[in-house]
Amino acid sequence: MHWRVGKGSESANGAGEATARGGKGSSKTTRSQRTNKSYKVYVSGRPTIDDVERASRGEKTKSMGVVEREAPYRLTRDEREAWERAKRRGGLETRSASRDGLARRRFPLVNTHRAYCDAVGMVFVCTEQDVGGGEDCVVVDVSTLRASEDGDARARLSELAIALGASAEDLCGDEEPLMAQMRYVAAMEGGFERTALVEVLEGDAEAEPAPSESEIAAARDAVSAAADRVREMKDSGKSNADDDVKAGVRCLLEAKAKLGAMEAAAEKTSAAANEAAEVDLEAELKRIEEAARRSLVELPIHGLPERYMRFKCPDRPTAKALSKAIAKEDLAPLLLEV
Question: Where is this region: Disordered (predicted)?
Fold first, then answer.
């Protein structure tokens, strides 16, 4: 029982005592926290099939963030028939020849089917049929699997394509989803500037060579020599207004700045500084990795980068056979879940 401070909460002896309720900053939990199964765990960003169906009809979804703003999802009658075929066969077929980055915004069928693949946890397969009857392309997006590592799965898809006589092009390279998301999170936190953490994640960070003791000693001697020259000129009766004294002071300041930079670099590359920097870097990498894992799970599919593979097929029967084989392939054992 919770007591409130005030007239209505006074006990029989007049000693009403306030009791802290659950919530932020309290050791107790609220009823919603105790009954919510997703409390302190990742909240899935996958939409429900019902929300995808609602989006395909142009209706308001029950959950927020299911659809991308300014991107079309509402299907026409012909597009709905094509989508129903895609759900049965496991792959979508389009006759678009567009290859630009805005193509997905102009095709509600592609947007809706990608959201559906995310909802059911299957790979997105789309066969781009050449209008002129030439080579068809099977485009696969493995981002709908929401895995932290999918290299083995992509290798398996390439094997299927090569076995059927198609050429494989992996647009993901050698980068795994988790590492790509870590780079994105680090770049976003740094204002998309090339920070030291981004360089470490990209493997471009190079340690600056530390100056040697002899170099630091030579810099100190240069500072002493420049100071002696300025002192001699002033002892001879010259003032700071003279040009040669001004030039000597400039040389002295430059020598001091060079010495300070060398001493700072030596201190930065010392054993204690390196150990502290490694500890800080390790903590930052752990934090970035946790944020990346959470975003891979909780972000809607349109908020995640596409991970495309493109397979060029010599003819349409090969494209249909490859699309069917990819849809039937069980990739779950080859994935590393987040």
Answer: 1-62
Backbone angles phi and psi of 13, in degrees to 5 = -90, 10
DSSP 36-79: -TTTTSPPP-PPPHHHHHHHHTTPPPSSTTSS-TT------HHH
Backbone angles phi, psi at 127, to 5 degrees: -95, 115
Q: Are 264 and 81 in contact (CB under 8 A)?
A: no
Separation between Cα atoms, residue 295 and residue 185, nearest integer Å: 9
* The token pair that represents 121 in the structure block: 């946890």
The one-character DSSP state at 142 is G
Structure tokens at 1: 């029982």
DSSP 8-state code for residue 143: G
Cross-strand pairs, 170 = 309
Distance CA 210, CA 262 (A): 8
**Per-residue tens of pLDDT for the chain, all 338 residues:** 433 334 443 444 444 444 344 444 444 555 555 555 544 455 678 999 999 999 999 999 888 888 888 888 999 999 999 999 999 998 999 885 544 444 544 589 999 999 999 999 999 999 988 877 678 899 999 999 999 999 999 999 999 999 999 999 999 988 899 988 888 888 877 766 666 676 767 665 454 566 778 888 888 888 888 888 888 888 888 888 888 888 888 888 898 888 888 888 777 666 555 555 565 778 888 888 898 999 999 899 988 888 999 999 999 999 999 999 999 999 999 988 86
C-alpha distances in angstroms, 155 versus 151, 158, 159, 324, 326?
6, 5, 6, 17, 12
Cα(124)–Cα(323) distance, rounded to whole angstroms?
A: 10
Torsion (CA) 334, 292, 122, 104 in degrees, nearest 10: -130
Tokens of 330: 């069980």
